[in-house]
Amino acid sequence: LILITLLVGGIWFARPEPATNQPEANAPQFDKTQFSIGDPTSSWLVVNKKRPLQPKDYEPASLTAPSAMRLAGRPTDANMQVNSEVAIALDQLDADARAADINLKVISAYRSYDTQRMIYDSEVRGFGQAQADRESARPGHSEHQTGWAVDLGAVNNKCEIEACFADTPEGKWLADNAHKYGFIIRYGADQESITGYQYEPWHLRFVGKDLAAELRRLGNPPLEEFFDLPAAPSY
Ligand SMILES: [Zn+2]
Predict the structure, then answer these.
(1) What's the pTM?
(2) Taking CA atoms, which of 21, 35, 43, 188 is between 20 and 30 Å from 159?
(3) Residues 98-140: pLDDT tens digits?
(4) What is the Å distance from ligand 1's center to 217 Cα?
(5) Could you tell me the distance, in angstroms and rounded to a whole number, from the CA of residue 161 to the centre of ligand 1?
(6) How many angstroms is it from 143 CA to the middle of ligand 1?
C-alpha cells in the first residue's frame, strides 16, 4: 500500500503546475500569425470595405450544404452552401441547439460575385447608396462570397434579418454558444465605425474554435481591431 501511495503520489507531483500558477511571462500567447488574413481560403480571412477579396471574383473550390440543419432553400442551391468545414460546424451547432429546444435554419450562405452585385444594386435602387453600404457589401467585398459566412434565423421566422433577432431565444442562444463551434457574430452592436456594417446578430462568420474562443475571451472585438487593421467604415 505504501508503494502504491508513493507511486500515485509520484505521478501526481510529477504533473506540471496548473497554468494559473505560472508567471505571466510564461503564459501561452495566442499566435495571431498562425493563418493568413489575406488568403480567401483561410478561415482567418479579413475582408471588409478596405480589404477586397483577391481576386475580386474569388470562388471557393467546393461548397456544400449542412446535411441535417434546416435550410430555407434546397441543399443544391448555391446560397444554402458553405465551405465543408463550416457545414460540419453548423450541423454540430444545430444538433446542440435542437437539444436545447432552439430551432434554427440557414437563410442565406454563399453568394457569388454576380449574385452579390445584383443584391447590392437592388439595395442601391431601393434605399440609395449610403444606406445600401450600411447593409450590403459591394461585390468582391462580401464574406458571403468566401463560403465562411452564413445568415441564420429562427424556424418560426421571428425577426428574420432584423436587429430584434438578438432578443429572440434563437438569437440569444447563438450569441452565447456560437463560439463553441468556431463562429463569431461578425458585425457586433456598436461596431459600425470599425466594421462598416450595422449590427447583424444573424450573420455568423466561421473563424475556427481557437480564434472564436480567443475573441470571446477578449470581449468580442471586431476582427479589424484584433488583427490591428485599419477601421473600415467606408470604401
Ligand atoms: Zn450575412
Answers:
(1) 0.87
(2) 43
(3) 999 999 999 999 999 999 999 999 999 999 999 999 989 999 9
(4) 24
(5) 9
(6) 7
